[in-house]
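dumping the sequnces here before i forget
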Amino acid sequence: MTIPALSVRSARKSFGGLIAVNDVSFDVRQGELLGLIGPNGSGKTTMLNLISGALKPTAGEILLGGETISGLAAHRISRKGIARTFQLVRVLPSLDAAQNVMAGAVFGHQTLWGDEARQLAHRLLDRVGLGGREHMPVSSMTYIDQKRVELARALAANPRVLLLDEWLAGLNPSELKIGITLIDELRHEGRTIIMVEHVMDAIRTLCDRCVVMSSGVRIAEGGVAETLSDPEVVRAYLGDDDDA
Amino acid sequence: MSTLPFGLTQKELRLGIAGAIIAGLAALLPLFDQAYYLSLSVNIMLYAALCTAWSLFSGPTHYISLATAAFFGLGTYAVALWIDYLPFPLLVGLGAVVSAILAGLVGAATLRLSGVYFVIFTLGLAELVRQLMTWGQAKFTGKVGLYVFTDIREMHIYWMLLALTVAVFITGWAVNRSRLGFAMQIIGNDETVARHVGIDTARAKIILFMISGAFIGIAGAICAPRYGYIQPPSAFNPMISFLVVIMALLGGTKRLWGPLVGVIPFTILMDFVTSRFPNHTSIVIGLAFLAIVYFIPNGVTGVLEQARAKLIGWRSARQAEVRP
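..and the predicted 3d for all of it:
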């Protein structure tokens, strides 16, 4: 059996009495796009924060290609090869678009510098549809363009696993189409991606498999169609018949 | 050149040449005057070095350090304690090393904290070092102060401080174009992002704080022969820390040359005030601080840049009107 790209083993995170992530386990295979879904407050973003090192798990283990990364500081995890975007887009406002993307290429999983880093930044901006806007200040960009910059920054690290935290949220229908196409291309390039998402269309189109969380617990895992029709998943999203 | 992040541009070259000419002209000053103007210029040069060194760290991180007096005093004491036994240049180096070590320790202990905690800690630290020095001196040497007798004269101090200022500028420029400088820019924008792109934020900040502290220590060491008689209250004078913050903020910390814009007028103003109204210096400093924070929070350079941006915007608007 090949080693999964990322394994989460009984990861738990409690904030005082609240258990945000309760002994969740799943594997992500090499080159797979895994959807991490669930109702609001189910612990998806906390799960991503545990993987990226923004938070340390209270218990359990997370392995990247068989190597334990849980408990490491965020910058170390980034250097091991995990890159992410943020639920609320986080660009670097005083830098231009190219510098924003370069930030991802210099200190992390890749340590490029100078022309190499700049050329990569330009290629990636082109890749996400921002060619020719390298020197634009990101603070004057639209929301989707800022999200594109953020994605390019994450890609600049050439990560082994890419975490997208609601990258498609807040986009209008035409932007959504562009966004979905972009992620689909990344998948076909063979990137391993974990995507937290609410946009069901995107999940159906893009994901190979999905993990469903509810109240911090993993309630389902498997192929997208069967998971989404799982009665427990339907109940988590829509509530019991009796309640209705 | 291609391995560097931003190959030396025409603009950088021009600025470098201009800087060299200014420094060269400044170096000629002691040939013309050896009294009042030289003394005033030593003060200007001292604060130019201190404020620029302070801004190396506080500019990008926005951490206000009040530990300047601690580093400065350590440098002064490195010279005062051993001037009779070791050569002066060695002691200047010692001042740099001791200050850098202290900065490293402080950084490791406090840079994980943010904002106001850091300010208070650094203020307390300067006071603590001063008290320790006073206690240590009384206990081990049985003296209150130390004499520093050298044949170093005012103009030598001036030249050394000028050289130090140039060194701080070159260091600042080199840091800005290095990975460390890029890391600091990212940290200044968003520390969470910085960590997630692989920057060891604590380490980067500590390194920069050490560089800044070392330069301040050197400045203190250079000034030791100027004072002649050294006591903890003068070497670790908290006023140094406050003046550095005020002047740097007045000039603006976003550009390397920003603090300089604050240092020159403010040192002249301070000189005027201390000679005319010696009992009211604190009031003037307090008022100046309030005025700066209220009216020009980004400093003079910030105001200039805003004006420039406005002018460009106005021009392009006019051009658009002309060509509909």
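The mean pLDDT of chain A is 92.
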